[in-house]
Amino acid sequence: MALTRDFKATVVSRVKSDPAFAQALLDEALTLLLNGEPDTAKLILRDLVNATIGFESLAEDLHKPSKSLHRMLSRSGNPTLDNFSAVLGAIRKSLRVDIRAVVSPATA
């Protein structure tokens, strides 16, 4: 019987051991958001929260119930821009990275 590992546990382990992977996930979440795929972006951010700050600490930092944050970052969640920005800020702070937008010319 082949050994398998839970996907979420693999993501958490990799984020903790590989800062470049964590940065790539954050970059991907922001790219998805800006390209009109907020549902997938929220799920990636949810994985990043679990792998970094954790929902309980995030709830304390943002003065929001952790249950609300879980709902916010679910596929059907609908966070306000303020809440989404606060989550991004907390993840950025936890990863100790800056977020910079780079605009590429649109392709026809």
List the helices and strands and how they pair.
Layout lengths: L6 H11 L1 H16 L3 H14 L3 H8 L3 H7 L8 H15 L13
Helix pairs in contact: 1-2, 1-3, 2-3, 4-5
Structure commentary:
This protein has a domain at 39-95. Helices cover 66% and strands 0% of the residues. The chain is built from 6 helices and no strands. It has helices spanning 7-17, 19-34, 38-51, 55-62, 66-72, 81-95. α1 packs across α2 (19-34), α1 (7-17) packs across α3 (38-51) and α4 packs across α5 (66-72). The termini are far apart.
Major sheet characteristics: none
Q: Topology as H/E string?
A: HHHHHH
Beta percentage is under 5%
Number of H- or I-type helical stretches: 6
How much is the radius of gyration in Å?
A: 15 Å
Distance between the termini: 50 Å
Shape: globular
* Oligomeric state as shown: single chain
Overall SS class: mainly alpha
